[in-house]
Amino acid sequence: MQSDLALIGFGEAGSTFAGAAGWGERARGWDLLPARRAAMAQQGLANSASAEAALAGVPVVLSLVTADQALPAAQHYAPYLAQGALWCDGNSVAPDTKRAAAKAVEAAGGRYVDLAILAPVNPAKLAVPLLLAGGAAAEAEGKLRALGFSNLRVVGDEVGRASAIKMIRSVMVKGIEALSDEMMAAAEAAGVVDEVLASLDASEKSQPWATRAAYNLERMHTHGARRAAEMEESAKTLLSLGVPPVMTRGTVYRQRQAAKLTQPPFASSEVETPRAGVSTSLDTNGTGEE
Predict the structure, then answer these.
(1) Interior/surface letters 268-290, b for 16+ CB within 10 angstroms, e for the rest
(2) Which tens digit of pLDDT belongs to each residue from 262-280?
(3) Burial grade of 68 (CB within 10 A; 0-12, 13-18, 19 or more)
(4) Exposed/middle/buried for 194, CB within 10 Å: 0-12, 13-18, 19+?
């Protein structure tokens, strides 16, 4: 059976999309980790013995690896792409990183699409907001809609534009989490947690700060390593724009330290689940970021 899609990487994003869409043998996949390849088989994806086999003849590829592997994946696997295949790079990396990946893909005869995922894949799943950029973005939008994605927007034909929106937005979203962590550590050390949180509630009524702080810290504990890698790419983005990433570098440190904790800082019952229909705007949903 001819597959319509290949997934490179089968972590949270890849497995969530595959499960929600029910692609089955319409999709093939490859991941460096044997356990994740086994998870692909459990979801009914066509068996692939190698990255080369997964990519052979497939018209659309979704690259969903960790930030530090986004460029190596494009460079290593580009020679296996069918001529004209769309490499949709959904990884959270700097625009310059995506432009470097695009060079590798296009040199091998593929077509590169800058894909930015603007919210958690759970619970939104196939309705997660996606931005697309690059010369083949409009075609990719049509093919991704045919695969089940429903919330897509083309933001330009320049590779790096979608990533720039994502990375610059992340400075605020991940920064708020890191500031929450720093604030709570200081408040606990001073014995003034209740007073500090109450003072924040008095100045902002959109959400109780005890709920917001618990949610931010839990997300850092669970995803801090991945988020730290992403924020390193945000720092590169700011540097390329001539902006010193002072707070962003601090966010990298805080996210990485939180990931080392053996237990989450708050009980799970205190952590709010993000609502469905996540907005792409910081103004309407400042915590809705992957």
Answers:
(1) eeebeebeeebebeeeebbbbbb
(2) 776 655 444 444 433 333 4
(3) middle
(4) exposed
Sort strands 111-117 and 130-133 into parallel, antiparallel or unpaired. Answer: antiparallel
Which residue carries 């550590």 as its tokens? 185
pLDDT tens per residue, range 144-172 = 999 999 999 999 999 999 999 999 999 88
Tell me which long-range contacts 236-240 makes (C-beta under 8 A, separation of at least 24): 236/94, 236/96, 236/97, 237/94, 237/95, 237/96, 237/163, 237/164, 237/167, 237/168, 238/168, 238/171, 240/94, 240/95, 240/96
32: Cβ contacts below 8 Å, ≥ 6 apart: none
Which token pair is 65? 């690896």
Place of tokens 């809609």: 145
Strand partners, 87: 61, 112
| Joined tokens for residue 126 | 């196939």
Q: Is the peptide bond before 123 cis (omega within 30 degrees of 0)?
A: yes
